[in-house]
Design brief:
The protein is of the alpha/beta class. The chain is built from 22 helices and ten strands. The longest helix has 15 residues.
């Protein structure tokens, strides 16, 4: 799978609010001043009370780690568990659908083969280990509870049932990149609000540049629409959260909920209830034909598509125009901090081929990042909350016989704690492919100065995006209603429909196609009518 393709897979997944692997890119010269920045994990010894295992573990996530990383982690683990054989059943998939089909086949077998997979691509499978049950368990390789080794508390990435079947290795953050040299030549500064986004984009376009590299595939409808919808509608959280008596009510979390529109972690402080959300839609207590929606859409069409890529409505890799110096700004994730640095320093022939450009070094330029510029006005209720979460390698464990599952969890605890992750990173660095997608989720990891400086450009705030943020554009993610909503959004962007009429059409579409929407979410009318009832689809 090429680097550019991997990025597309990740971005689509984030747009849908699910996890996916990071871009496995290269960053040479990351060994740091000491040569081996991650230490020598082979010298570490397990705690005396660690169990001894014998067996075979098959590791098969979507992302394919470098062979050196696989071998380094395997060697380090076998120092502690010499009778456990680790088999890496990984490859470069052409797309995520291929992996999802493969995983579905594996999980449908009478005897499931793989043990560690990217479980986010099998959301309907109920046989994954719930990592919440292991958080407090003592990790024999560190002598402390696993939740001291892996930062579970950073993000509350739970299923509707409240389980946690997947863990990611890195922290993701969405932000805007900009070419400092283009900005200086055009005599503009990073925009501090949406009005300045429009002004800066106009000046950049007049100077002959693509102002903002985005696409219509996932960045605008999935990220930007959700972030700015939340600015106008944070109060929807009160309608979409679980209430006392609901089947998924969590008294420890939901009982202490205190609505604060500007709390960065607002949407991490309640349990989302799809039944409550659709109940509010049906009752029309939340609606889209409002002045707030008209203002939001009016702001968006002042930028898109005229200040974005010329092929905006066709799928494009938004990264390429920026790294080539054609686009002045880029909306992307933290994974491009290390990727961009590497590409501008030394573009290899293989990397150039993956990007679809001629071999040779790109013209380097100075760049930096800034956070999402806020929309402003009397109808805006909060500051922007660009969603964060886990990225990198996403790992889930298939529940099997108790003793086998215990062995697999022992290996995963080793991997996702300092002793194992140190070995894994060292192997990645030795292969010249160290490019973390964000700060590590594993505690105690210190990256080389060059990498840590790049990752230091972002500050994680524990932000979780609202589950309903892009519903007005993407609907339930399938069916007739989704097709109509996406077509309506295309029309308003192309100025075929005025914002006021557009907002009215969105509301009417949801009212007229409510049955189709429910069908595509797996909910029934009875589920929506009674949030205390646990849906069969959950």
């Amino acid at each position: 799978m090429s680097g550019s393709s991997r990025r597309a897979f990740l971005l689509r997944s984030l747009a849908l609010g699910v996890s996916a692997p990071t871009v496995a890119s290269v960053l040479t010269g990351c060994t740091g001043d000491d040569g081996r920045p991650f230490g020598n994990p082979a010298t570490r010894r397990r705690a005396d009370d660690a169990a001894r295992y014998r067996g075979h573990i098959t590791v098969a996530p979507l992302e394919n780690p470098p062979k050196a990383a696989q071998e380094a982690l395997t060697r380090a683990y076998r120092e502690h568990q010499p009778d456990v054989r680790i088999s890496w059943q990984t490859k470069d998939y052409t797309d995520t659908d291929s992996y999802a089909r493969w995983l579905d086949t594996q999980l449908s077998a009478n005897r499931v083969g793989p043990d560690i997979v990217t479980s986010g691509y099998a959301p309907d499978f109920r046989g994954f280990v719930d990592f919440n049950e292991y958080r407090a368990q003592v990790n024999p390789y560190t002598g402390q509870p696993w939740e001291k080794d892996y930062a579970f508390e950073k993000y509350r990435e739970l299923t509707a049932e409240g389980t946690r079947p997947q863990l990611g290795t890195d922290q993701a953050h969405l932000l805007w990149y900009y070419n400092k040299e283009i900005f200086a030549a055009a005599n503009v500064s990073p925009p501090k609000n949406w009005r300045e986004v429009i002004e800066v984009s106009s000046k950049l376009k007049k100077a002959g540049h693509i102002p903002l590299s985005t696409n219509f595939d996932y960045i605008l409808p999935g990220w930007i629409c959700s972030v700015y919808f939340d600015q106008y509608h944070p109060s929807w959280s009160t309608a979409a959260r679980s209430q006392p008596g609901d089947w998924n009510w969590n008294p420890e979390l939901d009982g202490d909920f205190d609505y604060d529109a500007n709390d960065p972690a607002l949407h991490a402080k309640y349990t989302y209830s799809a039944q409550r959300f659709y109940q509010a839609l049906k009752a029309k207590t939340v609606r889209f034909d409002t002045p707030a929606m008209v203002e939001l859409v009016t702001n968006l069409i002042r930028v898109f598509p005229q200040y974005s890529n010329g092929d905006f409505f066709a799928y494009t890799d938004q990264y390429l125009p920026f790294v080539q110096g054609k686009a002045a700004m880029l909306v992307d994730g933290s994974w491009s901090l290390t990727l961009l640095h590497k590409d501008l320093q030394s573009l290899t022939e293989s990397r150039a081929e993956k990007l679809g450009i001629k071999a040779g070094k790109l013209e380097p330029f100075d760049w930096d990042v800034f956070e999402f510029p806020p929309m402003e006005g009397p109808l805006v209720e909060s500051r922007p909350r660009p969603p964060e979460g886990t990225t990198g390698y996403h790992l889930g464990v298939v529940e099997k016989e108790p003793q086998h599952t215990e062995m697999v969890m022992d290996f995963l605890m080793f991997w996702l704690s300092k002793p194992g992750y140190t070995a894994f990173l060292q192997g990645t660095s030795d292969a010249h492919e160290l490019a973390p997608a964000g700060p590590p989720m594993v505690n105690g990891i210190e990256y080389p100065r060059e990498v840590s400086d790049l990752l230091g450009k972002i500050q994680q705030k524990g932000i979780v995006g609202p589950a309903y943020g892009s519903f007005w554009v993407n609907g339930p993610g399938g069916g007739r209603a989704t097709q109509i909503l996406q077509a309506l959004f295309t029309n308003v962007l192309q100025r075929r429909t005025p914002p006021q009429e557009y907002a009215t059409q969105v509301q009417k579409t949801i009212e007229h196609h409510f049955a189709d929407i429910l069908a595509n979410t797996g909910l029934t009318e009875a589920d929506v009518a009674n949030p205390a009832r646990r849906p069969r689809s959950v």
